[in-house]
Specification:
By secondary structure, the chain is α+β, with helices and mostly antiparallel strands. Helices cover 24% and strands 32% of the residues. The protein has an eight-stranded mixed β-sheet. The chain has a five-stranded mixed β-sheet with strand order 16-17-18-20-19, covered by helices on one side. It binds zinc ion.
């Protein structure tokens, strides 16, 4: 999501709210690290089975957690955030004791956990979950009404974590292989979650249960529940892997507007299959689901609340005009199907893997339909949102993301890297190759860095250190005297050696500066750096 932009729009500093908070608690570590009570078992399957009662703003149900034993142990950590309460945990029909430590719950297993064996346990829970006040920036349940007074309910939980509304292993490194989501709701309403609808069960008591099956690995925050007075329409998209079902769920009275506005969805699919490769979840289909908040990249059920208009709530974030050519939420959140849902960070410190590529995706969507110059103008335009307040990568193992610069500084880092690689066919192969090599995986920054270095044939370690782990913008310092150009990089990490494309009195030239002075014979005395590079210059 676009947390940073929201803060920008309401003129509150990202840093003060999200914080480069260096004091972390034990709860932060229990939430953000791969604890011994998490490490010994590998998730295989969840069946989340809950009733949602909008009239009391409460939920009740259970999650069946299936796992494979990697290393025998007798204590297993499950996360669930107060005020929700675990009421009972069972395994093989036996009730187990639970040691509650804040939002982390340590279950004492009785039966033998043999290495390689498949096990499951049922975690029963209930209560009134935390209500989202500013969804999706804080997270929890949004209990709203539509314009006709019908309940309009949705979950969102990136950052805060899925354990705000259901019990699970709330760390991103481990994903289930598949999941069944069963949600019981009042009969007058429809419920939409991830994956494909398996069936609707009528309980003959004024409630229905919707069973949604996700046939792919899914990260915790991608799981969602949406309840409303929905109508449905759909289309078949002829994509790289065959026919993809694209389904749309919107409030009844928004149907006609949605039929117009959602034409951006197949456009999105065409552009991103071109750049990133096949949509990663053909088996689960693609959905756009209207919600009572701005939007979120829920896997195979992207949620939408952008008011059926182009731009970001009607505004162009780039200031170039190109941002009004598309619906920001459809394009940005759907790009996350490749970078966030297909390739997922292991630790939220590496959230740039989701947001930098997705913010960049906006510009190559523009490029696909309006040309290379337009795409470049868009991404360069978004520089106005860069803060350079803190590194893009956050601290590890405490569930803390880095600077909001992960969006548009990250996008401009990628745009700059493309200039260095200077081969658009290879650049597209790298973007597609990432999605193929890390298909349905959780990854670290190092894995992404190494992949791009290896496939481009360039050692990019100093480059990534500069843009991801430092706040300084590389500055080309130079002096021109008697047809001689002296130049070097300053304001950089050691070893920074990116070549840079410049024009000298209008004539193209590639310079290969390092942090030491270099000299070149030139004709002319006006040096201009190619604006596609996110760097600065300083003339002496
Ligand atoms: Zn995003």
């Amino acid at each position: 999501m676009n947390k940073f932009l929201f803060f920008l729009l309401i003129f509150v500093s990202f840093q003060t709210l999200n914080g480069q908070n260096n004091s972390f608690t034990k709860q932060d570590s229990l939430r953000g690290s791969i604890t011994p009570e998490r490490a010994w078992w590998d998730l295989t399957y969840y069946h989340l089975d809950i009733s949602v009662d909008p009239s009391t703003k409460s939920i009740k149900g259970k999650n069946s957690v299936h796992y494979k034993v990697l290393k025998p142990n007798s204590v297993l950590q499950i996360d669930l955030q107060a005020p929700l309460m675990i009421t009972k945990v069972t395994q093989n029909g036996e009730e187990l004791s639970v040691d509650h430590q804040g939002n982390a719950h340590f279950i004492k297993l009785k039966s033998d956990q043999k290495k390689g064996s498949l096990q499951s346990l049922d975690v029963y829970y209930e209560g009134q979950p935390k209500e989202a006040k500013r969804a999706p920036w804080d997270g929890g349940f949004s209990w709203k009404k539509d314009d006709n007074g019908n309940d309009f309910v949705a979950t969102s939980c990136q950052g805060l974590g899925a354990s705000v509304w259901w019990p699970n292993k709330d760390h991103m490194y481990d994903e289930v292989d598949s999941m069944l989501i069963s949600v019981r709701v009042p009969k007058a309403l429809m419920e939409v979650s991830n994956g494909q609808l398996r069936g609707v069960e009528d309980h003959k008591d004024g409630t229905n249960t919707y069973h949604w099956f996700v046939n792919n690995p899914i990260n915790n925050y991608g799981v969602n529940v949406n309840i409303g007075d929905y109508v449905h329409f759909s289309e078949d998209y002829n994509g790289e892997k065959g026919i993809l079902k694209m389904d749309y769920y919107v409030l009844k009275y928004n149907l006609e507007k949605a039929k117009q506005q959602f034409k951006d969805a197949p456009r999105m699919m065409e552009a991103f299959e071109h750049w990133f490769g096949p949509y990663p979840f053909y088996e689960d289909g693609y959905k756009l689901v209207e919600v009572p908040y701005l939007g979120m990249e829920h896997q195979s059920s992207v949620t939408y609340g952008n008011g059926f208009e182009n731009g970001y709530l009607g505004r162009d974030l780039s200031g170039t005009g190109w941002g009004l050519k598309f619906d920001f939420i459809i394009i940005h959140e759907s790009a996350h199907e490749w970078f966030a849902n297909n390739i997922t960070y292991k630790d939220i410190a590496d959230m740039w893997i989701h947001e930098s590529f997705t913010a960049y995706a906006e510009s190559i969507f523009v490029e696909y339909f309006y040309g290379k110059k337009a795409g470049a103008e868009y991404v360069i335009g978004t520089r106005r949102g860069i803060q350079n307040d803190a590194p893009i990568i956050g601290p590890y193992d405490v569930n803390q993301s880095g600077s909001g610069d992960m969006y548009y500084k990250g996008a401009n880092m990628l745009h700059t890297l493309r200039q260095w690689i200077n081969n658009d066919i290879q650049w597209r192969q790298i973007l597609r190759g990432l999605n193929e090599s890390f298909y349905h995986q959780t990854v670290t920054t190092e894995e992404i860095e190494n992949y791009i270095s290896k496939t481009s044939g360039i050692d990019l370690s100093a480059f990534f250190n500069q843009y991801l782990r430092d706040v300084r913008i590389p500055t080309l310092e130079y002096r021109i005297k008697d047809q001689q150009l002296k130049y070097r990089w300053i304001n950089t990490v050691s070893g920074f050696n990116m070549p840079v494309h410049v024009a000298i009195n209008g004539k193209d030239l590639w310079l290969t500066p390092t942090t030491d002075w270099s000299t070149a014979q030139i004709e002319g005395n006006e040096l201009q750096i190619d604006v596609d590079f996110y760097v600065k210059s300083k003339k002496l």
